[in-house]
Design goal:
The chain is an alpha+beta fold. It has 4 helices and 5 strands, in the order ββααββααβ. It has 2 domains: about 90 residues, Nucleic acid-binding proteins (OB fold (Dihydrolipoamide Acetyltransferase, E2P), Beta Barrel), CATH 2.40.50.140; about 60 residues. Helix 3 packs antiparallel against helix 4.
């Protein structure tokens, strides 16, 4: 399970909006010196992100929460979003080059169409794939109300 800490910023029906700052994993990762995610987090100043999740643990605004998502779900989603479009781009380019030898323009156009088709198929396929790709509330740390002086 991959986890991330955050704070509830809004409650909307049976869901909550959780604000996270993606830096906690970077501090303990052994690949942090060569990681693109660390570079992006540093460039954005550790900018906060918000995600909507089901409020299964009755969290309230201001509560610190821990979100989790299964590693298998993250791996499958990554392969679908990155590998499928690239694979279709390469296959379309090779097929176009075989059909019209020596025409680089046709191969480039086919590669672009293959890439676009890959993104389209990935988007449609992910809606029908079995599995849970949404983060879940794992733990809630309730904040005590502030005392008036």
């Amino acid at each position: 399970m991959i986890t991330e800490s955050g704070r509830v910023v809004a409650v909307s029906g049976n869901t909550v909006w959780v604000q996270t700052i993606r830096q906690s994993a970077c501090q303990s990762c052994s690949a942090r010196s060569g990681c693109g995610q660390r570079v992006l987090a540093a460039a954005s100043g550790g900018r906060a992100n918000q995600v909507q999740v089901l409020n299964t643990l009755h969290a309230g605004v201001g509560d610190d929460v821990t979100l989790g998502i299964a590693e298998q779900a993250l791996l499958q989603a990554s392969l679908l979003v990155y590998a499928l479009p690239l694979l279709l781009m390469v296959v379309a380019s090779i097929a176009a080059n075989q059909l019209v030898p020596g025409s680089d323009g046709v191969a480039i156009l086919a590669a672009g169409l293959g890439l676009g088709a890959g993104f389209f198929i990935a988007r449609r396929w992910q809606r029908h794939m079995p599995g849970d790709y949404q983060p879940h509330l794992m733990k809630v740390n309730k904040h005590a109300p502030a005392q008036a002086l």
